[in-house]
Write a structure and sequence with these properties.
homodimer; 243 residues; alpha+beta; Jelly Rolls; 40% helix; globular; DNA-binding
DNA sequence: CGGCGGCTTGACTAAATTCAAATACCGTGG
DNA sequence: CCACGGTATTTGAATTTAGTCAAGCCGCCG
């Protein structure tokens, strides 16, 4: 597939992404070796993969997850356009988690050695990559707080709030609704809940006119109640680097 | 307090830590601006602290945590000698989590701008710092899997197994026992359980002759059963950088 | 000795899971 | 257009797990 033109990348038009200077852009361009289209529901990285590639999600949704040997699955985080995929994995012997697409997705593929060259050639970009790693860690910290200390309804409110804000930041809203390409099973697996209980809690949020999610559409009916319910702190979404 | 001598640091004698070359060592030495001793049970970093410092834990135990506004606390991870403290926080506006000591602890204090200088001056050390960040993220991923998808006994087994292995890696065992400076309340807060239920599960593990933890002493009675119970994967502990 | 923090236990309650079954939605092929 | 099959959602009931409340105990320190 044709190489994308990084300096012209439409993602960069979004205000969430930090401006990159000429040098950085040309370096990023050099790191990219291809562009890949993956259908919905496919694995981008398998748990345990040796030497997996590094990608940037260009379009579509995906998620990171881990499984226990008896099949129980825990979703660690959801991935949206602009997210780096497989960067942590590249630093170790094998991928510590799997990544699967939720929708058809386009990926920018990085050359295998680009990680190291990043550190050698560009302190700024190395810093950016580290920033993204630290940021991802922060998100998982938040999720751990959610799963460990919030009850079912609070968990759902916190997760939906988070996804809503992330999607809004990259202009993925249509009016007041959001097309969330996930099922209730994904919500359950992200929050450490059973599918049935997830459904019941979701219905409760709907009954209370707080939010409505079904068939992949999320509508925030009462954002304020949502925030209260989730004990959600509005850390202003920082500008993030795009590599 | 007297500056420590990094090249002679006794921590570096442990086989878990990667060899650092002369240049790296001297740079690390330059970054260190002091050495600090903190009593047990004190906060090193408070949630929300603006511009917190970066430290390396030199001796003692600590833990990272977050709280909800009504006081519910979630421990994110435990910190042992060699761990970086506050590195992620330094990259953002404010510390996203707090850090508290479990024992008296000694900290190597880094100069405030050292993070950035690291990236500028030494690709190797920058890579190491990123590696540590990515590694920490991996641990939180594991914890999220534990809290989200394991039941109470499995959670406890997984946590104790993890702490045991970490402590062993830096030669903190005394015979087959480990001095774990935590209370059952810490275990509960790390695993998203109530104190009472934690106690009951711990007693069950003891009754089954799998492990025994009380008064800060952990004895592994049946490591194999422990592993099975926790569905624990023995990823060989990699050599890690020490900054 | 008294007090305090941490551990232990039992009884009760609440939350979440499991099981089971019905219903709605969506794309395919007749 | 409708029937069909598969996936996703919804609901109720029974069960299990974990949380809450309350009290007693243990060990240590002043």
């Amino acid at each position: 597939m044709k190489h994308p033109n990084c300096p012209q990348c439409p993602l960069r038009r979004s205000a969430v992404f930090k401006q990159a200077d000429k040098a950085a852009l040309s370096f990023i361009q050099k790191m990219k070796t291809g562009h890949q289209r993956i259908p919905a529901g496919h694995e981008v990285i398998r748990e345990g993969d040796a030497d997996p590639r590094v990608y940037t999600l260009y379009s579509g949704w995906a998620f990171r997850y881990k499984t226990l040997s008896d099949g129980r699955r825990q979703i660690l985080n959801f991935l949206l356009p602009g997210d780096l995929i497989g960067f942590q994995a590249q630093m170790f012997d094998a991928a510590p988690h799997a990544v699967q697409t939720l929708t058809e997705a386009e990926l920018c593929v990085m050359s295998r050695r680009s990680i190291w060259s990043l550190f050698e050639a560009s302190p700024e970009l190395a810093f950016d990559a580290t920033w993204l790693t630290a940021h991802e860690e922060g998100v998982v910290d938040d999720n751990l707080l959610t799963v460990g200390r919030r009850n079912a309804t609070e968990r759902i409110a916190a997760l939906l709030m988070y996804l809503y804000r992330r999607a809004r930041a990259i202009d993925l809203l249509e009016r007041d609704a959001l097309a969330l390409p996930i099922t209730q099973a994904h919500i359950a697996d992200a929050l450490g809940l059973s599918l049935v209980h997830t459904n019941k809690s979701l219905r409760r949020l709907h009954r209370l006119n707080i939010c409505h999610f079904s068939h992949g559409r999320l509508v925030m009916l009462d954002p304020r109640a949502m925030r209260t319910m989730a004990d959600y702190f509005d850390s202003p979404i920082a500008q993030r680097p795009l590599i």
